[in-house]
Design a protein that fits this description.
The complex is a heterodimer of chains A (426) and B (323). Helix content of chain A is 25%, strand content 25%. By secondary structure, chain A is an alpha+beta fold. In chain A, strand 15 (367-381) and strand 16 (384-398) form a beta hairpin. In chain A, helix 3 (135-144) runs parallel beside helix 4 (162-170), helix 7 packs across helix 8 and helix 7 (255-267) packs across helix 9. Classes of the chains: A alpha+beta (426), B alpha/beta (323).
Chain lengths: 426, 323
């Protein structure tokens, strides 16, 4: 029997995806798990695997089409199978202008009850897809945001059980592993070398567009104010050097790892800066977790990878977890949970010789810390000029949530951890 | 810890409590001179005397009625009904008087009454003497129903029952008297109304009590050889029913089998599975299975009797069914 494959939901806020390329063509034999198509979301390009084995009978959408999640994209069945697409989908296929349901003639309200019941039996509805799944499988699917229609049941009479959800999750659509930047046709490859002396017009990459939307929204809606503080990082730099002699090459800690932990510990004292505004309900949400986002430059833009419960982790833990996620982000293999749920963001441009800069708040967060480079500078102590190591950081704060003094006090409190880095090791 | 039989454990509990408190006394058919139909009270008559070990006429209504009266005056009777099948003759006294006096008279009196009785089949005593109507009594609020499955629990629970001020039906299993188990030496009171995990496992939760605990334990050994690891929760008390360990275990395994010796309809399995569905619906991964007696009057014929009673193989099969 023919089966429908739908647009998967690959992240909490994914509402639609662009089907950028069909990998399998109509009439092709497909086994369960084989790649059907490539889909681009706001955040990444991923492969969609077939949830069934059979022949790809029908591609329901064109390449380049934007498809809402859970809308059907393909039909898989047996070779030569006659498929009534409309009956299968319970509605006209996407892009086909067929009307099946006739409106009941007006003025016949007396017949309403029987008319509606007969209509119901003639019009295929969602009922045809009534699912056979255990209550546990249903609650797990809801929590993991898995569409049960994508899961094959292996229990008695095809019931979907815990086991099926677990094995489905293990094989969930994986991000494209692009060895060479095999970027899909609609995406222009940013010229890495050389300048092209020719004016061109290219579609805005999805990620670029998403960043644009969010940053515009942030700047327009959140009144930003900025506070800058200069930190003595001499001790931190020394301490880091000392620790790194004990660690293997790919395990070494960065200055940023120290700062991320320092920020998390400081936030414990400033719940207001670990909050979000719920404008609709005139409420403030104080987050129960301190999840530090770290801005990472990727092709065509930037992503914020998230370290969860940072206040409860050692620098080494933070460092190794971030490394894994940063690498995934840079390789375009980011998992949805890598980039979801941050409550405060740190943007560090220290490696680009930046004195200081200001960052735009990553909504709906309350603040973002922009970190510059650690630099050797002349400092005056007791009338003498000495060489010191300093680092400037600028906090951008949403004025709807907090005020200047709190921002300044936050930066002051942060000094305690940055300037006495032993506190970070406790 | 010494390994003693269920019979010895119950006997020790009675003996110790009678030594401890002179208000405690025993009454029932053949409990005195004969030493009890199951030899639980052997030696009691000689030691404690006829005043505290009373032989009664063959009239269950008299035994329970007299025990209720004695309890109301402040004594602590342990009445013995030879088998639970005979308790029907005293049903009015048990469920309408004992279970309700405290309530009907606004708490003016307490009823420190224990009724010991014997339930279960498997000894070719035929249909009227082999029943397991435990749930019939557990249906009534006001009466506590205790049914231990190990010597340790039998001793600790019986001692708690004798010291309790509530009327308690203490159900022993006809075929467990010879079974042995380790029993803590000295005073070890086990609270009434607490289920217990008797075997840890991870794949399926098996809920049982009394004789069927033993059956489930045997099934567990058999299943373990096939790599199936079941967790066994022993209810120990049917009323009040402690679901907490059951739910905790179920939330871990998501699968359950309930094993009881009585009939399936309206039984322990019905009650426990309903509560799981009510309180842990989102954890259910397979329909819960019930193992129980076939719905017939228990046959006298040995082979037929065994076919009608739940066996180890039935438990093994049910566990595989939910996996």
């Amino acid at each position: 029997m023919a089966q429908v494959v739908s647009m998967p939901k690959l992240g909490f806020d994914m509402a639609e995806g662009t089907l950028v390329r069909w990998v399998a063509s109509e009439g092709e034999n497909i086994s369960k798990g084989a790649v059907l198509a490539e889909i681009e979301t706001d955040k990444a390009t991923v492969e969609v695997e077939s949830t069934y084995s059979g022949v790809l009978l029908r591609q329901l959408v064109q390449q380049g089409a934007v498809v809402p999640i859970n809308d059907p994209i393909a039909v898989i069945g047996e070779s030569g199978e006659e498929v009534n697409i409309e009956a299968l989908l319970g509605k006209p296929a996407v892009g086909e202008k067929t009307t099946t349901v006739e409106k009941p003639v007006e003025g016949e309200e007396v017949q309403a009850v029987s008319a509606s019941s007969s209509l119901a039996s003639e019009t295929p509805t969602d009922m045809q897809g009534s699912l056979h799944a255990s209550p546990l499988a249903r609650s797990m699917a809801a929590e993991l945001e898995i569409d049960l229609r994508m899961v094959r049941g292996t229990g008695p009479a095809g019931r979907i059980t815990k086991k099926d959800i677990e094995s489905y999750q293990a094989k969930a659509p994986k991000p494209v592993i692009s060895k060479t930047p095999r970027v899909v046709p609609v995406l222009p490859v940013a010229p890495s070398k050389g300048f092209i002396h020719e004016t061109r017009r290219v579609p805005l990459p999805k990620l670029r567009a998403a960043i644009g939307r969010r940053m515009t929204e942030s700047m327009q809606q959140a009144p930003h104010f900025y506070v800058t503080h200069e930190y003595d990082v001499g001790a931190l730099v020394d301490r880091r050097k000392e620790i790194n002699t004990l660690l293997s090459e790919d395990d070494k800690l960065s200055v940023n790892d120290f700062i991320v932990r320092a920020v998390a510990l400081t936030l414990l004292e400033f719940p207001n800066l670990n909050a979000s505004l719920d404008l609709k309900n005139n409420a403030l949400i104080y987050h129960g977790e301190i999840n530090i986002g770290v801005a990472v430059a990727v092709e065509n833009g930037l992503l914020t990878v998230v370290n969860r419960n940072t206040d409860q982790k050692t620098i080494h833990q933070i460092s190794s977890e971030l490394k894994i996620k940063v690498n995934r982000a840079r390789e375009g293999k980011v998992h949805p949970e890598d980039i979801e749920g941050s409550t405060f963001t740190v943007s560090n441009m220290g490696m680009y010789d930046v004195d200081q800069f200001t960052a735009i708040i990553n909504p709906p967060e309350a603040a973002i810390l922009a970190v510059g480079s650690a630099q050797q500078v002349p400092i005056v102590t007791n009338g003498e000029i000495m060489i010191g190591t300093r680092l400037k950081a600028t906090l951008s704060v949403d004025h709807r949530i907090s005020d200047g003094v709190e921002g300044a006090r936050f930066l002051q409190a942060l000094a305690k951890f940055i300037e006495e880095p032993l506190r970070l090791l406790i | 810890m010494p390994r003693i039989t269920m019979r010895e454990a119950i006997s020790q509990a009675l003996w110790e409590e009678m030594e401890r408190d002179t208000k405690v006394f025993i009454m029932g058919e053949e409990v005195g001179l004969w030493g009890g139909s199951y030899a639980v009270t052997k030696g009691f008559y000689d030691h404690f005397g006829a005043d505290r070990v009373k032989d009664t006429p063959i009239s269950e209504a008299t035994i329970v009625g007299a025990a209720i009266g004695a309890a109301l005056t402040g004594l602590r009777p342990v009445a013995e009904i030879m088998t639970i099948n005979f308790a029907f003759s005293a049903f009015e006294h048990i469920v309408n008087q004992a279970a309700k006096l405290h309530y009907m008279f606004a708490g003016q009196m307490v009823l420190p009454l224990v009724i010991r009785t014997v339930s279960g089949g498997g000894r070719q005593l035929a249909a009227t003497h082999s029943q397991s109507p435990d749930v019939v009594f557990a249906h009534f609020p006001g009466l506590k129903v205790v049914a231990p499955g190990t010597p340790e629990d039998a001793k600790g629970l019986l001692k708690s029952a004798i010291r309790s001020n509530d009327p308690i039906l203490f159900i022993e299993s006809a075929t467990l008297y010879q079974s042995r188990g380790e029993v803590t030496e000295g005073e070890n009171l086990i609270p009434i109304g607490k289920s217990k995990i008797q075997r840890l496992g991870k794949d399926v939760t098996v809920v049982s009590y009394s004789k069927m605990l033993e059956t489930s334990m045997k099934a567990a050994d058999q299943l373990a050889q096939e790599g199936i690891d079941i967790e066994i929760v022993d209810l120990r008390t049917l009323r009040p029913l402690d679901m907490e360990p059951v739910l905790e275990s179920f939330k871990k395994t998501n699968r359950a089998v309930i094993v009881e010796e009585g009939w399936r309809s309206y039984g322990v399995g019905a009650e426990v599975s309903a509560r799981i569905y009510e309180e842990a619906f989102d954890y259910v991964d397979a329909p819960i299975q019930r193992v129980a007696q076939k719905e017939v009057p228990l046959p006298y014929n040995r082979n037929l009797e065994q076919l009608a009673l739940p066996q180890v193989e039935d438990v093994v099969k049910a566990v595989k069914e939910v996996l």
